[in-house]
Amino acid sequence: MAERGAPEGNNNAGKGTDWRDAIRYELAKIGREIDGDDPAYKKGLRKCAAEFIQAAQAGEMWALKELGDRTDGKATQALEVSGPDGGPVETKLNYVPLCQQSDK
């Protein structure tokens, strides 16, 4: 039975943690300037979110796009799949017998 998860020695999952930790650190620095009982990074995150919403309210296109993507989800990419010259996609199925049948 195949094992679940990444192969031995694969550390791809850990690559995003450095970036996440750096973001949380910077948010905590911002958050320490704000009074309250919540963890500092959450206060910093809320401050950044408030500034983001202000940018969207001011009509900043990047903020409006991001707001739409975050609330409604990103639009799916339209793909057209066709064969040569716009015709149908040709599929081919090859039958390969796994074992020889004996004459009985």
Q: How does this structure look, described?
A:
The protein has 104 residues and is an all-alpha fold. It has helices at residues 15-31, 40-57, 61-72. The protein has a domain at 40-74. It is built from three helices and no strands. The longest helix is centred in the middle third of the chain and has 18 residues, at 40-57. The radius of gyration is 27 Å and the shape is elongated. The mean pLDDT is 82.
Structural shape? elongated
Radius of gyration (CA) equals 27 Å
Helix content: 40-55%
Number of strands: 0
Strand content: under 5%
Question: How far apart are the first and last residues' alpha carbons, in Å?
Answer: 36 Å
Oligomer: single chain
The main sheet comes to: none
Brief sketch in words of this structure:
With 104 residues, this protein is mainly α. It has three helices and no strands. 4% of the residues are buried.
What attributes does this structure have?
single chain; 104 residues; mainly alpha
Can you lay out the helices and strands and say which pair or pack?
Elements: H1 15-31, H2 40-57, H3 61-72
Helix pairs in contact: 1-2, 2-3
